[in-house]
Amino acid sequence: MNQINPKEWEGMLLKYRFAKTMLEAELEVLLKEYEYKNQYNPVEHIKSRLKSESSILKKLEDKGYEPKIENVEKCVHDIVGFRIVCSFLSDVYDIVNIIKSSKNFKIKDESDYIANPKDTGYTSYHLNILVPVHLEERLEYVEAEIQIRTVAMDFWASLDHKLQYKLPKDIPVYLQREMLSCSDEIKILDAKMQHLYEIVKKYTDKK
Fold first, then answer.
1. Kindly report the CA angle at 116 between 110 and 122, in degrees rounded to 5?
2. Looking only at Cα atoms, what is the longest distance across the chain?
3. 6-151: which CATH number, 3.90.180.10, 2.60.120.260, 3.30.460.10, 3.40.50.620?
4. Pairing state of beta strands 80-86 and 139-150?
5. Are residues 48 and 81 in contact, defined by beta-carbon separation less than 8 angstroms?
6. What is the pLDDT of residues 15-42, one digit of tens each?
7. Distance of alpha carbon 83 from alpha carbon 23, whole angstroms
8. Active site residues
9. In whole angstroms, what is the distance from residue 19 CA to residue 140 CA?
10. pTM for this model (two decimals)
11. Cα–Cα distance for residue pair 92/29, rounded to 1 Å
12. CA 148 → CA 151, 153, 168, 194, 202, distances in Å?
């Protein structure tokens, strides 16, 4: 049950809404500038969302924390979430560098689950950043999570997410192995597509 004062809750979520809006604008500028300089758009699509109140409280409960504002801000790192999906493996790291180049926010943490996949087979690049939000009397840094992945990685992650919700807590071992096998095949596909992209790029660069 939510024990947080409704006014305090709304005030907290307002900061995250501001951070989401600011991050949307900053990413658009960074990526449009990259496209202008390189005559190439590495992004297939971008999705953003603000985590719902029920999801935030469930995450606190799962982690064993009381529903308090300080626990939300300390323990829930993906209230603001962005997913950037791109075509090729090299695009992922280009986008990571584009984001890191911005002086308008700070990098808090990063996890390269492409180089070091999770045991489930999940692959993606995560950046946790701090977005400066200028409030009436103060400046606060609000955390947001950005996930960057290829179309193939996104396909696997989307299906895995759906299966996790449909299956019981103890997923059958054979199904875990099948999902891990699919993840390995996706890595091979990404590598092949990257190789083809580099061949095509050599021809286009000669023109």
1. 90
2. 64
3. 3.30.460.10
4. parallel
5. yes
6. 999 999 999 999 999 999 999 999 999 9
7. 12
8. 145
9. 10
10. 0.90
11. 17
12. 10, 9, 28, 16, 25
